[in-house]
Specification:
Blueprint lengths: L5 E4 L4 E4 L15 H21 L1 H14 L5 E7 L5 E7 L9 H12 L7 H5 L9 H9 L6 H6 L4 E3 L25 E3 L12 H13 L3 H17 L5
Parallel strand pairs: 5-6
Antiparallel strand pairs: 1-2, 3-4
Length: 240
Amino acid sequence: MKEDAVAYSAVAEEVVSSGPTLYLVADTSRSTGFRGKCKRLGDVLLSGLALLALSPVLLVISILVKRSSPGPVLFVQERIGKNGVAFPFMKFRTMVHNSDDAIHRQFAAMFINGSDKTETPENVFKLTDDPRITRIGAWLRKTSLDELPQLLNIMRGEMSLVGPRPPIAYELDHYQPWHHERLRVTPGLTGLWQVSGRSNVPFEEMVRLDIHYINSWSLQKDLQIMFKTLPVVMRGTGGY
C-alpha cells in the first residue's frame, strides 16, 4: 500500500483520496421511504406480540431481580440512538444498585481503542467476573434475557428489532470519525454483531459489520439475523 493513505468508500466501492485510514461510509438509502415504513411496521407488530407472549417470563424475571438485591427492577441508562439522539435505554437490572461505572468506562476505552498486542483476546475484549453483577444478573446476561425490556424501546420507536447496538455517551469519546457511521440508523435489539460472536468480536470489526448491515439492508436480511439470534443466545456465545 502506498504511504499516502486513502479512504475506501463502502457505498461507491471506489478508492478516493481522503483521511489517514480506511473510511467506511454508511448508505442509509435502503432503509428510507416505503421499505423503512415496512421495517417500522414489522418492529411494532413483532415486538408487541413478543411482549404479550413473554409477559409471564417478564413477570418472573421481575420478581427474581427484585429479590436478588435492593433496587429497581429496571436499569434505565442514557444511550445514543439514530443520528446521535439520546434516549432512555431499558434493561433488567443485573448489577448492585447505584454501582460505580468506572470499571466499564475503563473496559470501554480498552475495547474501543484496542490494547497491548501481547494481551490475550480473553483479557482484551471481555469484561468477565465483574464484581458489580448479581447472581441472577449473571444468568440474565448469559442468556440475554436482561435485554427483553428493550421491546418497549422498540414500541416507542427508539430502537428496532435489528440494527447496530446503541452506545453509551461516554463511549463516543473514544470513537474515530468513521465509527460514527454506525449511528446513522435506528439501533437494534440484535444485529450482525450478535450473530457473529458478540463480545468475542473486536470493536472495529463490530463497526464494519454494522456498516455492512446498513449498506446491504433488506427485510429478508433482518429476518435472517433474527432467526440466527436465537441459537446464539441459547448457546450464550459471547454473552457477559
